[in-house]
Specification:
Helix content is 43%, strand content 4%. The chain is mainly α. The chain has a two-stranded antiparallel ribbon. The longest helix has 15 residues. It is globular and about 60 Å long. About 5% of the residues have low confidence.
Length: 259
């Protein structure tokens, strides 16, 4: 009897590993940098909170091979977004097929569940009632979740066809010139006129502690300490940065980058 009960239990958990893997892929590729899930994430792309509830009749399968299912549409869209949805701003990420399958599995799991609160799992209770995150809040996970799609998984920068290159925020030269305060302020308030959103002030964005953890993560992974305080010269009421200084060079680099 015990063996039968165990077999039934394990059979009910068949999809769990693939779902966990798909969610991990989602949180490692920076998808929340453009998409919200349960109120957390960016605004460039559509909200994915109820993606699993999408009606196939409302999707265009003209450029999707195979059966007209939401799963097939999602898979083809992950492979070539602009081919499935002409004009889509989502770049082709160069995903592997296991990554595509994992993302599809996770997307299909995002649907409304009308379950009594008394039956909610502990992790959902912590998210819904205690305002905790549904993902880890260490530096690597936060950077992967919010930043990797634009800046690369290691901060090496990203280049997509037809887009201005995204800067390499993990570059040692950049980190040797940029103070922690500068990086934190940029993440918090964004870059007006650029694609860098104000993560510290927008709905569904990053909390101050999380921004500090991300900055610390960049320092730790690069091995580059924060630069020593620089004292600019003052002429009248204007603060002057000497031409050729690291601060001046940094700002010049940022002026043409996407950050």
């Amino acid at each position: 009897m015990d063996r039968q009960a165990i077999e039934v239990y394990l059979a009910s958990r068949v999809g769990a590993p693939e779902l966990v893997q798909g969610k991990a892929v989602f949180h490692s590729l920076g998808c929340r940098g453009c998409h919200k899930v349960a109120g957390v994430g960016g605004d460039d792309g559509p909200d994915l909170t109820s993606m699993g509830d999408r009606d196939p009749a409302r999707l265009d399968f003209t450029r999707v091979p195979g059966e007209a299912t939401v799963a097939n549409w999602l898979a083809e869209h992950f492979r070539a977004p602009a081919r499935v949805v002409p004009g889509s701003q989502m770049p082709a990420m160069g995903l592997t097929e296991p990554q595509v399958r994992g993302l599809v599995f996770y997307m299909l799991s995002l649907r409304r569940h009308d379950v009594r609160e008394s039956l909610w799992p502990a992790d959902r209770l912590r998210v819904e009632r205690l305002d905790e995150r549904e993902f880890a809040v260490d530096g690597a996970t936060l950077f992967g979740t919010f930043c990797a799609a634009c800046h690369g998984q290691s901060g090496e920068g990203r280049t997509y066809p037809g887009m201005v290159p995204f800067p390499a925020v993990g570059n040692p030269d950049f980190l040797a010139a940029a103070s922690d305060e500068f990086i934190s302020n940029t993440v918090t308030h964004g870059r007006p006129g650029r694609r860098m959103p104000a993560w510290g002030t927008k709905d569904g964005g990053l909390r101050p502690r999380e921004i500090a953890v991300i900055v610390a993560h960049l320092r730790q992974t690069s091995g580059v300490p924060a630069p020593r305080a620089h004292r600019p010269s003052v002429v009248g009421s204007k603060v002057m940065q000497p031409r050729g200084s690291t601060v001046c060079t940094l700002l010049c680099r940022l002026s043409w980058s996407g950050w």
